[in-house]
Write the structure tokens for this entry.
Amino acid sequence: MAGDTSVVVESQIPGLDVRRGKVRDIYDLGDELLLVATDRISAYDVVLPTPIPQKGQMLTRISEFWFDWLGDSVTNHLIEIIGGVVPAGLEGKLHGAHAQLRGRTMRCLKTKVVPIECVVRGYLAGSGWKDYCRTGKVCGIELPAGMQECQQLPEPIFTPSTKEDVGHDENISFDQACDVVGRDVMETLRDRSLDIYRRAAEYARSRGIIIADTKFEWGQLRDELILIDEVLTPDSSRFWPVDKYEAGRDQESFDKQYVRNYLTTLVKAGRWDKTPPAPELPPEIVENTAAKYQQALSMLMG
């Protein structure tokens, strides 16, 4: 990736239908999928017009790292990362598109997606902090009185949410999640998600990163529940530097919160109302955001 300054906003694979999410393009190969991490970035559920160079490649490398780090203890959907050589059997399909897919595309098993976001929180931040300020609880889970913003929780908590194609995901109770997919499934996903978070957070802290919270996605492949999508990246998690952490205030971060903070200044100044079209990002915001992703990658992988 060194020296590569290419930007992919929308991937194009001739002959294959694409479904474009906020930041990723998904191609259906039958029993497999190609998940292309573009350089698009979103905030407040709006895709911004300014891409972050190499963002997709960096996030893909972080997901690959975690899938490998979790190893055989957690089955996942990753078959391979599309690298310097077109995978056998895909030569015809990827002809002419390989260059833009390289390093940012996961070839994955196709599963039946569980329609619940499995969120694990280790610190009181974001919507959890707002919920706590209103109710003293997070997603119905009672917490001690007098906690501060971004304070570490007594123990990690599992707070599922809906998985919406349009608009905001909505926090729901564990019982509500059980009503959607069944109690046996949710109990399994809760226990697995909490276990992965605890192990990953311990490792990341040893590398100088606090994983404040994260979300996991799971899919069903025949009778097995497997980990899918991206995992433990700065886009699906809050990453904070250990050496800058202090409870009681907002934190510096390695994730796109940096971009949100910039956009918040525009909202407060009346220059944007959180609806499309979003404003262009200044060059220094783009450069600093890319540097934060790169720093997170470097710290995790050593």
Notes: Residues 18-110 form a domain with the Phosphorylase Kinase; domain 1 fold (CATH 3.30.200.20). The mean pLDDT is 93.
